[in-house]
Records
---
Amino acid sequence: MNLWRIKPVDQLFQESSREKLPKAMGPLDLVALGVGAVIGTGIFVLTGVAAAEYAGPGVTISFILSGIGAGLAALVYAELASMVPVAGSAYTFAYASLGEMVAWVIGWNLILEYLVAAGAVAIGWSSYLSDLLRSAGIVLPRALTAGPLGGGVINLPAVLIVALLTTLTITGTRHSAEVNRVIVAIKIAVILLFLVLGFSHVNAANWRPFTPFGLIGVAHGAAIIFFAYVGFDAVATAAEEVRDPRRDLPLGIIGTILIATVLYVAVALALTGMVHYSTLNNPSPVATALLSLGIRWASGVVSLGALAGLTSVLLVDIYAQSRIFFAMARDGLLPTAFHRLHPRYQTPHVALGVVGGAIALIGGFLPIDIVAQLANIGTLTAFIIVSIGVLVLRKTRPDLKRPFRVPGYPYIPILAAAFSAYLASNLPPLTWVRFVVWMAIGLIVYFSYGATHSQLAQEPFPLAGLPKLARKPWLKRRKP
């Protein structure tokens, strides 16, 4: 059994060209997809926590540092996405550079990332909806807003929003992209409204001292809020449904990071200028700051923005996870049913149904504290391996066309991998324990199904598609 068999890029192109996924997305759709995934309630929550506990007003510098770290990974993704515009994101990149076993590990980690993150988002969506309805005098019973472990029966709003968005994504990429653009527009409008209100009530005295915890505090704040940028990699999962992927994918990935960084920095600057940073250590710092200034309708505005943000994140998570299932099933590592397209809408409806069902179960029956921590480690693992994949493909496939090339090679990919490894090492020990358990389950699935059903396992020489200049001497077959 060859665990390190590599899928030639030429073969990836041939397989993707046979698919009937509609080319329905342009650069604006990709940026909306990325912004929809990245900017959620983190902009309303993490800013205050990081300012109060770690960085003070210097949290604005923390967001810039985190944006640089995310930008390093974004540049790596942009090169691979423009070079291998095939569904699957980091999973596909790893298959083309580091081999099947590494690709499986990445794919399995991405399943963890998107399913768990989407489940947590669905729970948060239900909580914000309940708060919004409560402010209007409508109180939902506890039995219908929490799972059994949270003192209820089922978190019904979480289940319903997952079912609605899953149905939407099944009806076509064009429809879901249009709805996502509208939701993202609402979210950004709410953020811009807050910025107008915030900067009109700034007291410059609140910015002094700007770094009360020193530069170390600023660095710690950057590590905490880095996860506000997680999600831009979802853009790469749309590769096969983009009209001009070699041009538009880098624009979508890099544009997402730039827009997110500008909005995060602006919100941090406005928030810490409105009130003293020490008052921001609470679950809703933005609403607290607005209420302290006498703007009573703040709660409704923040809840509306949070709902829009969570809806777009959930929509993108469902979409991205289904495309990873689609790519893995096409390679034979998962059952072929996940690769089946709807006869009318030409979407992977089976994969979407399974993804939506799993997320609904997580959101409907588990508490948020169990599921929230697991997504980050899967993302960071993907970042590390994708960064290594760029280094490997530059050596093994120098002949491939690269419409976008990582500047500062090889230092940028090395820095991206090192930064992600540093953040992963600072995650709680319990997160690592759960990660090891998840990986053990994944290896059992791989060796019991994926390794034997893999398409490459059926080929006599899996590397035959590679040109001679890309083969290492030890990979060549010996002459008889």
Note: The two ends are 22 Å apart (CA to CA).
---
Amino acid sequence: MKKFLWLRFLIVLAIFLSIALFTCCQVGKKTSVDPKPAAQVTENGFDISNKGPGFKVGFYNVENLFDTEDDAVKIDSEYLPTSRLKWTQERYEKKLANLAKVIEGMGFPAILGVCEIENARVLQDLTNQPNMTASGYVFAHFESPDERGIDVAMLYKKADFTVKSSRAIPIKFSKSSDKTRDILEVIGTLKGQPLAVYINHWPSRRGEDDVSEPKRIFVAEQLRKAVAEASSKNKNVGIVIMGDLNDTPSNVSVSQTLNAQEWTQSASTDAQMLYNLGKPLEKRNEGTIYYKGWSVFDQIIVSGNLMDKADKEMMVFKMDFMTYTDKNGNKLPNRTYTGPIYRGGYSDHFPVFVHIYVR
């Protein structure tokens, strides 16, 4: 009788162990072929998950951010309350609020280059907007010799970026009396990563190409010299060039003089190499400004030694509130004025940005 009970016990035990073993195998099999997907974090359609802390670095041509006061040494008479544009304090304040809304939408980049600003006052008024104060922005700025008085500047968060030096790189044409914007150089560290940042607004395309293009090529030559100087002083410094270049990534000034190329997986990560993160947009016929078609005038270019820490493509920030739809269904930048007609918009350019991932 006892032998029979032991036999029953062993049979039950064997069945139990077989079921347990089968269950474990099935669980292991399911885990190996059907893993639970990791959460994907995206921004503007780009996967930014698993890249560590990312800091936005951006640029925005804010289009004629003038105050309402006459400056005797600048050609700013168009932007006065008594001008044909009727540039009143109310319109000025709306412009500031609009720009602050865009910068907030961008997520308050750690570094934001800007151009077409009149002076330090408009920068102060912009950073003092109610939704901007918590960001802790300060700015680097120098008055430029541009006849209209429009300058470049860099907003940055002191908590993220520490400035070691800044200077204006003057642009003096040998064969022309024309004056243009200086290049702003700001050298510092982004959470320990050495950076040399260059804010640009190159000469416009007004007039014939054989007159305006050599000016942009000349500016590109001065910029390339400054970059080489910064790199020679610190081989670990990362170069970030941004601005409204009034040329596309394929134009001579950018692709040849500056020698900013498209990034590929086989490209060199040497600090002396420059890569244009706006080139993929140009290849897709996208852009940052629209005139008879899209152009990528606003660009971000970085050195090879940052390519393992930066996005491989520049992102254009364009939300519906910043746009209007033309008769062909294109969503275009909604600007402040169209000729003398007040639109109350934002800018004729879309801003751009990339992430730099530092640990």
Note: Residues 2-33 form the longest helix (32 residues).
---
Amino acid sequence: MAAEVGLRRAGDGAVLLDCGDLDGALGVLAALTAAREAGALDVDELVPAAETVLVRGGEARHPRALEARLDELLAGAEPGVERVHDDSETVIPVTYDGGDLAEVAAITGLSVDQVIARHVAAEYRVAFTGFAPGFAYLSGGDPALAVPRRSTPRPRIEPGSVGLAGRFSGIYPRESPGGWQLIGRTTLSMWDLDREPPALLVPGARVRFAVERETLRVSGTGAGETTRPASPRDAPGRPALTILDPGLQTLVQDRGRPGFASMGVSASGAADRGALDRANRLVGNAERAAALELGFGPFSARAEDTAVLALTGAPRRGRIAGPLGSRLVPFGRAFRIDTGETLSLEAPEAGLRTVLALRGGVAARPTLGSASRDTLAGLGPDSLASGDVVRAGDAAVRAVGPPE
């Protein structure tokens, strides 16, 4: 099977295995998972997709060496073999009243009742996840229900909507745009941070659908995801800055949340990882500390206490103003701001994102181990708004660093 698998470098820490089709990808995933758990393969993450498997970290940082071992690692792998730890079945109750149900019936040449009957009769496996946290691509459906996506995607789809696209069935975990053919809805939550794991459906899980008759839907309840976007003002810690003007987008970011791609969660994190690391070194923070990532446009904040800050990334001009006058803001080295003083920054002179680090780090409640804001997935603290209070954490681990 290894001869059929193509290997391509994916960035500087991963490789992408092209397996040809879904069955091939499932077989490769099963073989590599077994090798990893047996200690024969040292990688951080295996991420399946429709025809590929992404191998991230560890041995994937050395593509040539890993390629030389593929025959050995994939020996005995069979197309379509799926491996799961828990072979229990998840039953999804569905009210079949989707806006595209009649269209699906017309495309397939079946009646509406026949579409429903075939959908609930099939047995499904979660082949992979993606698009949004908790969105599972379910394979194994009736071939007669393989329909194309809508020619015009909907701008807004309710959470819990059940849809068809190609050979897959799927359930939208949160409100989002989408182009799948909607045939029904469920009240089960696909994504809940109070659940372990948060994703109801993970790769390899067995799934079937069941007909649920029409039930009364109460406003504010249902299958919505419970990501509970937080505000920085909800976090513990010492008040350090009050945001006066956040610019077009100011986010809390750290080094991200790798390791959750199997649930449809990207690593996210700071766009300029090097700038984040430099800023944290300048103020003496641990590498894990969160900072503010400033987008385009001006930015201003008032100091609620004496603080040590540093700016890296896209350069900006700025001033600190207070009762005793004003001074220029240095770039690329730590500086002090005192209680009541105002930090004002212009738009970047070049580049897009500037990192503003605070000694002690920006305190924010972590989601899946990270304080980073993932705007696509809706994870982590909301983008900052005027009036938000940024609090200092406890991530200071060394003396303030020299200019770099």
Note: The chain has six helices and 24 strands.
